[in-house]
């Protein structure tokens, strides 16, 4: 009887718990499906080649409510080696009411003293299904490489992100600042060799000047003045002055005694 009552109690407990188990299972299935959908969306967001871009070469205005930022990851000094790739992260914050679609990112290099003088148009990178919903933000990578023949120095880099809102093209500048370009292929450049040679020459000249000053000082200390004290001339003049006096006879007697 006790075992039969225990079986009935166990079956009743399973019947009561079965709806809860079904709900938990449904929730877990829904979460897995959402995660798979998110993964699918992430794989749809891809970078396409330059030949597939179709945004035109025109210049567009910036859309209202769109803010952009820029970060050089692991390169806060903004040091760019000529011919090597450098990464920029362009951030977009959509404060508008409509979703935007990022089409491409492009950049160009200019002279610092005259921004109108273009040095190089860098390659553009296009994005596929890169949408930023309203009241959200996203980050997009951009890899660029300046010409390996570009000499070292400071130059201006202008980065632009092109996007669409309600099928209208816009663009915003996410970076407009100075970068430091270094020559590739070696540690020493022509300018660095010149500076090192000039520094060594200055050090050698300074050493020679200090050595000359030390030698002059040592020569002056070696030349000590010699003072000679004579007694014969003074005695003769003294005898002439005392000649004909009693002191003269006394001095003669003293001299004769000294000779003896």
UniProtKB/TrEMBL annotation:
Keywords: Calcium, Endoplasmic reticulum, Membrane, Signal, Transmembrane, Transmembrane helix. This is Translocon-associated protein subunit alpha. Shows a remarkable charge distribution with the N-terminus being highly negatively charged, and the cytoplasmic C-terminus positively charged. InterPro entries: TRAP_alpha (IPR005595). Residues 1-26 form the signal peptide. Belongs to the TRAP-alpha family. It is found in: Endoplasmic reticulum membrane. It comes from Cucumis sativus.
């Amino acid at each position: 009887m006790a075992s039969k009552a225990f079986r009935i109690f166990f079956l009743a407990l399973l019947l009561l718990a079965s709806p809860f188990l079904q709900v938990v299972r449904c929730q877990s299935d829904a979460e897995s499906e959402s995660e798979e959908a998110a993964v699918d969306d992430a794989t749809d967001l891809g970078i396409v080649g330059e030949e597939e871009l179709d945004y035109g070469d025109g210049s567009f205005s910036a859309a209202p409510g769109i803010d952009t930022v820029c970060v050089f990851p692991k390169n806060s000094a903004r040091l760019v080696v000529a011919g090597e790739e450098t990464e920029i992260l362009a951030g977009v914050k959509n404060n508008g009411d409509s979703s935007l679609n990022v089409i491409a990112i492009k950049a160009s290099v200019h002279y610092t003293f005259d921004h109108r003088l273009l040095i190089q148009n860098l390659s553009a990178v296009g994005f596929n299904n890169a949408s930023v919903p309203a009241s959200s933000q996203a980050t997009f990578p951009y890899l660029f490489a300046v010409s390996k023949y570009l000499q070292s120095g400071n130059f201006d880099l202008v980065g632009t992100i092109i996007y669409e809102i309600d099928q209208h093209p816009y663009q915003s500048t996410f970076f407009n600042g100075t970068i430091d370009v270094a020559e590739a292929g070696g540690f020493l450049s022509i300018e660095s060799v010149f500076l090192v040679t000039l520094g060594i020459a200055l050090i050698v000249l300074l050493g020679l000047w200090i050595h000359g000053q030390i030698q002059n000082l040592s020569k002056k200390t070696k030349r000590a003045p010699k003072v000679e004290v004579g007694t014969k001339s003074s005695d003769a003049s003294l005898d002439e002055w005392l000649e004909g006096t009693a002191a003269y006879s006394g001095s003669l007697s003293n001299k004769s005694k000294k000779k003896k």
